Each structure stands twice: as structure tokens, then as C-alpha cells.
Amino acid sequence: MEHCSDKKNDEALADISALMRRIQACGQEILDEFVRICEENNFKYYLYYGTLLGAVRHKGPIPWDDDVDVVMPREDYDAFKKLMLARPEGELYHIQCYENDPDFWGSFSRLDKRGTIYCTQQALDEGRRYTEMWIDVFPLDNAPEVGSLRYQCLYLRMKWIKRMIVNKLKKNTNRMSLQGKLLHLFLKPVSCRWLKHCENKMIRKWNSKKSNGYLIWSTFKPPVIPKVWFEPAEKMAYNGKYYKVPCKWDKLLRKYYGDYMQMPPEEERVGHLPIKIKL
């Protein structure tokens, strides 16, 4: 009986592994379309976060990672977004952002593939509709000096507006604390689009000022990364193809992950497998 149980576990793991490879192949397909658009229009981009880590440590996707992350300097990001928003309805690859999706919560965008479905339990818990397969596209914004009063003030304001956006978008308040429920009630007359507009205005405040560092406002307390770590970009192999990465990729990965070549414990090697999928 024990041998039978082990066999079933092995078969289940094999099925999950096969599904993850299909998900990653679809993600790379979308990445290739993104790179094609960038190269046609001379937009700067770089593999980032877990995708950069995968390129360095695995020469491809992290085996249990289910998404692709890229970053662009704000000027290139805005040009990319404008180009994609102008595309006709029905295009196979299309952009998802707060300008065209009132339920989109992030201060970034996604390049989606039409006709696909990728829905996680987290998305359902947050009341979001089914999500298409995507890659995440983050803007790199100028940053005030870390530790300065201006940085602290901007960080606190961003922290609160992000909390308001996340609270506003939640459809189910049953699991909220009393404080969360009161905030949800307070935000009832306010549109999420207006909150996103305020967030975007704050983010852009420093892009007209001189800065030696970038940050990404997708997290509550983003680190500031020196601009000299990005250019001139290098090309790195990722699943048999070559993509642009920051020139100081080693320093960048150490900043985010410490000893990044050290594999995490097996119990932490878990992706966000979907509960509904169509590729």
C-alpha cells in the first residue's frame, strides 16, 4: 500500500510539472511578443525579479515559478503603454492596466494573451474575474534619496493609498478586520480609478527631477536601485533564447535575494497553481 501511495504521489508531481512547463511556455511566448514590440520601437527593457533569477540560476524559468517579470524605464514604459492602448480591440496580445480595467489593482501593467484563462484561488478570494495568461511589466521610476525626509513622506503616502486601493477592490468584506470594514465603508463614494489617478500622480512626481536611483512602486517599501546597475544592458540565455538583463545583475540579485544561488527549502518551492486554466 505504501508503494502504491508513493507511485500516485510521483504521478501527481509529474502532472504538476508538465502543467507548469506548459504555463511557462505560454509565458515565454508572451515575453517574445513583448520583446518584439520593444525592439521594433527601441524601448528599453530588462528581465527582473524571479525571471532574472531564473535566467542566472536555471538558464530558464525557476521550475516552480508561474509568471514572467520585466521592467522598463518610465519613459519607455509610458510609450509602450500608449502604443498598446491604441491597438484595435480583439488583438491577440493586449495590455491590461487601470486605464482599461477598473478592477486592475497594480501600479504596473500586464501584457495578456487573449483567449487564455489563468485563475488562482487568491484572485477568486479577492473577487477578481478570471485572468488571462500574462507577463508583468513594471515601470522604473526616479527615486528621492533613501532616508531623506522627502523619501519618508512619499513612502508613507504611497503606503496609505495602496492600502486604500487594495481595500476598495475587495468585493468580500467578511474576512476584513473592523478597521478594514470601516475603511471600505469610508471609500464607498470614491472610485478606484480616482485612487489610481492619485497614486500615479504621486509616482510621477520624481520623474521630472534628477535622480541616481530607480524604484518600483509595486511593493509597499521598494528598495532603491542605482541606475548604473542597468546600462549598458547585457544579453542572457533564458530557456534557449537571449533577452536583455541589467549589467550589474549579480549586485541586483544579491540586493533582492541575498545568496541567490542557494536553493530554497523544498517546502518553499511552490508556485501559484491555477484552479481554472485554458492555454
Radius of gyration: 20 Å
Mean pLDDT: 87
Order of helices and strands: HEHEHEEEHEHHHEEEEHE
**How far apart, in Å, are the first and last alpha carbons?**
36 Å
Query: How many separate structural domains?
Result: 1
Q: Helix count? A: 8
Q: Percentage of helical residues?
A: 40-55%
Strand content: 15-25%
Shape: globular
Largest sheet: 7 strands, mixed
CATH class: Alpha Beta
Which regions have little confidence, pLDDT < 50, spanning 5+ residues?
Answer: 1-5, 7-13
Structural class: alpha+beta
- Compute the number of strand runs: 11
The CATH topology label is Beta Polymerase, domain 2
The name of the CATH architecture is 2-Layer Sandwich
What would you say this structure looks like, in words?
Strands 1, 2, 3, 4, 6, 7 and 8 form a 7-stranded mixed sheet that branches. The protein has a two-stranded antiparallel ribbon with strand order 5-11. Strands 9-10 form a two-stranded antiparallel sheet. The chain has a single domain (2-141, 215-278), classed as 2-Layer Sandwich (Beta Polymerase, domain 2). The chain is of the alpha+beta class and 279 residues long. It is built from 8 helices and 11 strands. A hairpin with a 2-residue loop joins β9 and β10 (241-245). The longest helix is centred in the N-terminal third of the chain and has 40 residues, at 2-41. Mean pLDDT is 87; it is low at 1-5 and 7-13. It is globular.
